[in-house]
Amino acid sequence: MVDVMLMQALLRAVPHKAALLIVGDIDELPSVGPGQVLADIISSGVVPVVRLTEVFRQAARSRIITSAHRINQGLMPDLSSPGTESDFYFVSADDPATAVSRIIELAKTRIPKRFGLDPIRDIQVLCPMNRGGVGARSLNIELQVVLNPAGDRKVERFGWTFAPGDKVMQIENDYDKEVYNGDIGTIDDVDPDAGELAVSFDGRSIKYGFGELDTLVPAYAATIHKSQGSEYPAVIIPVLTQHYAMLQRNLLYTGVTRGRRKNMDRPKNWEAHGKQLGANSCSFMPAGF
User: pLDDT per residue over 10-48, tens digit each?
Assistant: First the structure.
């Protein structure tokens, strides 16, 4: 998560007599900014390093954890039906259109009904990329229509519709508002007369003028890159051939490990080649839903 420039600023601020303990996971995606700070520090051999490699009995009961370890090793995760309650499910589909309809069904009906989760607050669709029919941009439009259809009190700006109840993400750091890239909130109100809307971030209500809405996007679906450092009660990860350019181990590993309680990951076929995992057409529907 820390790039070279931020790490430089941190080290300059740390007193010479202080010790710095760095905790991280080099198997996740590197920082969005330049550099691979943690990986480079470890490979340098200059500082002492401790690696946690053992999966203990309690953690081994989680298919999220065991699947993530297998992905990291370039192995196929266990995609068989668990038969009993599980935190990781896999179901295939033959084409992107079917994948979209099943993602919508999962988020709107099946996961909330089976696990008692809120479809907007608790379920997060994480995509390998923004583009494509099963990318974050397209899925945001589809999911917004079914999960929070806009009424009369709405505003359309910068290619998006914003309405009360929408889940939105801040995509730029705003130090005046104290909201930052990747923060997720919920729209409380849209006031066309005042030309502004209010978004709640962790209980703080932040006002946005309609001209500032280029810093917000719907967040029903987001890219896996944007999810770094976050976790969600349930995650749905579409993995399709159209995403082939992004399908590397660290991306899938990062996505799978964002799930805190349930992870619904549905590629139809995985092929391990070197450091990449590819997938043919696929969809996501947990077995038994």
Answer: 999 999 999 989 888 777 777 777 888 888 888 898 989
CB 264 within 8 A of CB 286: yes
pTM of the model: 0.76
